[in-house]
Design a protein that fits this description.
24 strands; alpha/beta
């Protein structure tokens, strides 16, 4: 964030009154007044402000700076000034950026009289992957009541809220309300000084000052609260560690403990979504994190480069190290000890680029006051360690994910072995030397792997060994543990076993992620993790699958239930999807809940408002469509709810596929009709076009299930004509239409997905290797289809060249079976299907990376062909 700056003289403020807003666009480091339009007078205020900016504007972003005085804080006047200057600058300063509101990804208010920046974090910020095909920001920036500042050509809004949250209390904020401090202080805070959080804007919008002195929020009714915080060494956007540094997670802060953390990511997200990202894409993601108030997130890039240094120092050869690491698309499971070797090795350039990337990610996260979670040693080692240290005590673990021991069966150091603290401290010391530390570390020893022993003494010793290796390097270390192991194998993890793990780390030094709390919470059966602090997390998505899915009722009420649980140790909320870029409504709600004390009182009204903000205008049919989706695809409940798309469309076909869903399909088709009805009014919105495509994709997914049921019934009845009719529509009409539709949006292109992988390479051979990595993950997930289609996606190119040929092969086999009067041989079909699947992975055709066709026209074409049959009740 920008450092504190000296207050400009009052005469400067007055002379620049006609220029209170500056839009800075471009790719160069900021250099004072040269950024003014050539027609504008030179403003000394900018000369004062510009040197204080810590970094230039890099990539596709801009800074929007406001200079506001208490006099102009009145809604009407401030709105008029901002409108005039935005219009001026958008036209005359940066025409190349003027039509791209997505550039305005950071917002700072500078308070007149102190020069302090205020970071504004809106409650509803579009995820970078939901931007339009041209990069336009597709979502209005707030949900709050107040004057709306709008650009001429885009529906991007920013509002002054009518209330502020301060120390958990909502107070009026508008004309007459102001933030004050006494005495004013213009310096930049330094570690260890006091800091006070002065308020959170309604609906998740945050106003934050970093100060060294007590502050108070005044409204028409007088002082409304806010007390000084205790000294602590971290500050910035979204930092709610007030009075409670990470090394004291269990202490009682001045604010609401249950909302201290807003966590983001899953270890698997690193591979399913982030694996091929460059800095420009990471920068957009961190902006999104900041604007949604994320203050705790994994930062795990580059760790293999550190491990390589450690292994070489221990005496392993480079060949042995290369044989140990998986390929890039599977590193998440190598890091958790599930896999080794598979689809590797890592090229030397990978390590170099990932180190560079990690430094930039950490620098930006820390500049926003986020706490990055670094990796630590969990106990897994390469087999080659046994060559260098023949006496080392290791256990060969069982296989994982249907892989044989060529790629799984990791080696786990015994907790009492003297090499455990040596390797653990070597790694962490080298890591901290390279990247610095914020004192929170992640490690997962038994992720989806059964420990060698169920004895509490062993589990306690294994846990203690991991923790002691951390504190040998960092005495303030806190261990962030994914609680997935307790949920995934409940038959193993009984009360004694769970208690052994939780009790082996001092209370407050273990921070547990209740990873799947919206569906299968663990805190309820562990007495709130036996006193260890935990974060209530929404997992939601598995494998990065496409498909409309959510449990919004459970998500909405879950954090409050956890907070009110007897002797609750909840310290925050989190979003922990395995893959992103889907179902944005779910994440918008979860992000807002991180700021709310109570659930959203009316979800139907909330989604209606969500649609209006998302499209820039309210439309009754669009709102009705979203309410139908809320009651259907977004209303899954109970333990059966898993965000893993098991639709027949994306599975290897068989006669045993389950097509049941938890919702009434008629709601999906009616929502489809309503959204199409609103297209004439909303088609200019990139967000609307994305949602229309996604809902049409979902409708086609439902149609595939219905045509499959019809074909299966025809096969079982030996009705060849009916089988050919249903199968012909499914494989030769419906799936090609879906592929064409997906091809109209860059976010649904296989070509874009594979180009990301290729762009990470430094040679053609390396690009081919990365592309194969990516293809394997999307399809076979192993050399033999070991976790087949787990990471399925519905992408143009993948539908046409992977799913469609497989469906045609299946339906032709069924037809041949009926025609010849012989049973269908599933085993033989699986062998033939594997040949198709493997051929796709190993092939090298290039796919379009630019969209083709008009989404609205293509969606309407599919609708007009298939919706009437649904209405007629043909199924």
């Amino acid at each position: 964030m920008c450092p504190m700056l000296p207050s400009p003289p009052l005469s400067t403020v007055i002379s620049c009154a006609s220029l209170p807003v500056v839009v800075i666009c471009g790719h160069q480091r900021i250099r004072g007044t040269r950024l003014l339009p050539s027609s504008a007078p030179q403003c000394p205020l900018l000369t004062t402000l510009a040197p204080g900016l810590r970094r230039g504007v890099l990539g596709r972003e801009a800074l929007l700076l406001f200079l506001v005085s208490k006099a102009t804080a009145a809604v009407g006047l401030a709105g008029q000034l901002v409108w005039e200057i935005l219009t001026l600058f958008q036209v005359s300063q940066a025409p190349s950026h003027s039509q791209d509101p997505s550039q305005l990804c950071r917002y700072y208010l500078w308070e007149e009289g102190t020069g302090r920046p205020i970071f504004i974090s809106p409650s509803l910020i579009a995820h970078p992957d939901s931007m339009g095909a041209e990069g336009h920001w597709v979502t209005p920036l707030t949900r709050t009541v107040g004057t709306v500042f709008s650009f001429i050509s885009r529906a991007v809004a920013m509002a002054v809220p009518d209330t502020v949250l301060c120390e958990g209390q909502r107070v009026p904020f508008g004309p007459g309300a102001r933030v004050t401090r006494s005495p004013p202080h213009a310096g930049f805070p330094v570690p260890g000084k006091h800091r006070a959080e002065e308020g959170l804007w309604q609906g998740g919008m945050k106003v934050e000052y970093a100060t060294q002195i007590p502050a108070r929020l005044e409204g028409p009714g007088g002082v409304q609260g806010a007390s000084p915080s205790e000294a602590q060494p971290r500050w910035g956007l979204g930092d709610l560690f007030q009075g409670c540094g990470p090394c004291r997670v269990g202490c009682t802060p001045a604010h609401d403990t249950a909302r201290r953390y807003r966590y983001y990511q899953n270890v698997c997200t690193q591979s399913y979504s982030f694996v091929w990202w460059d800095w420009a894409r990471w920068e957009r993601e961190i902006d999104w994190m900041a604007l949604n108030g994320i203050n705790l997130a994994l930062a795990w890039s580059g760790q293999e480069a550190i491990w390589q240094r450690v292994y070489l120092a221990l005496g392993l050869t480079q060949t042995e190290i290369n044989e140990f690491f998986t390929g890039p698309a599977f590193l998440a499971w190598g890091r958790m000890g599930n896999l080794h070797t598979w689809d590797g090795p890592l090229p030397p350039s990978w390590h170099i680029k990932q180190l560079y990337l990690q430094h930039r990610v950490l620098d930006r996260m820390r500049s926003f006051g986020m706490t990055p979670v670094l990796p630590a040693f969990a106990g897994h080692v390469p087999e080659a360690v046994t060559r260098v240290f023949p006496q080392v005590n290791v256990t060969k673990m069982g296989s994982w994910g249907h892989f044989n021991c060529s790629y799984s069966c990791s080696f786990l150091l015994a907790p009492e072995d003297p090499m455990f603290p040596v390797i653990g401290s070597l790694f962490l010391r080298e890591l901290v030397k390279e990247f610095g530390t914020d004192h929170i570390y992640g490690a997962d020893t038994f992720n989806e792997m059964q420990p060698p022993s169920s004895a509490p003494s062993y589990l306690a010793a294994a846990t203690t060994a991991v923790y002691e290796a951390m504190i040998a390097v960092d005495t303030e270390a806190v261990w962030l543990l994914q609680g997935w192991l307790f949920q995934h194998q409940p038959q193993f993890w009984g009360p004694a076993q769970i208690g052994a793990v939780l009790g082996a780390v001092p209370r407050g030094r273990l921070l547990v992620l209740d990873l799947f709390a919206e569906s299968q919470p663990v805190y309820t059966r562990t007495a709130s993790f036996q006193g260890q602090p935990f974060i209530w997390c929404m997992l939601h998505n598995f494998g990065g699958n496409h498909g409309l899915f959510g449990a919004l009722e459970a998500v909405n009420g879950g954090p409050e239930a956890a907070r009110l649980f007897p002797n609750s140790t909840m310290v925050g909320t989190g979003m922990a999807p395995e893959g992103i870029s889907q179902n944005e409504v779910v994440y918008s709600l979860m992000a807002e809940l991180g700021w709310r004390k109570d659930p959203v009182p009316d979800l139907a009204a909330w989604v209606t408002n969500f649609a209006a903000q998302r499209y820039g205008v309210s439309h009754p049919d669009a709102g009705a469509a979203w309410r139908l989706l809320l009651r259907s695809v977004y209303n899954c409940s109970g333990e059966v709810c898993r965000g893993h798309n098991r639709s027949p469309l994306v599975r290897r076909p068989s006669l045993q596929m389950n097509t049941s869903v938890w919702y009434n399909r008629s709601s999906v088709f009616e929502a489809w009709r309503l959204l199409l009805t609103s297209a004439p009014s909303l088609a200019a919105s990139p967000a609307f076009r994305y949602d229309l495509l996604d809902l049409t994709r979902q409708a086609v997914q439902e149609l595939v299930s219905l045509y499959y049921e019809e074909a299966r019934s025809a096969y079982l009845s030996k009705e060849l004509t009916s089988l050919l009719r249903a199968g012909g529509v499914l494989a030769y009409e419906l799936l090609p239409a879906l592929d064409e539709l997906l091809g109209s949006d860059s976010r649904f292109l296989l070509g874009s997905w594979l180009e990301q992988a290729r762009a990470a390479a430094v040679s053609e051979a390396e690009a081919d290797f990365y592309e194969q990595n990516s293809r394997y993950q999307l399809t076979l997930w192993g050399p033999e289809g070991n976790i087949l289609d787990y990471a399925n996606k519905q992408l143009a190119g993948l539908v046409a060249n992977y799913y469609t040929p497989r469906w045609r092969l299946f339906l032709e086999a069924l037809a041949d079976s009926v025609a010849q009067g012989i049973p269908f041989q599933q085993h033989q079909f699986d062998k033939n299907a594997f040949q198709l699947e493997q051929a796709f992975v190993l092939s090298k055709p290039r796919y379009p990376s630019q969209p083709r066709g008009d989404t609205v026209d293509l969606a309407k074409k599919i609708f007009l062909k298939y919706y009437p049959r649904w209405v007629a009740g043909s199924w």
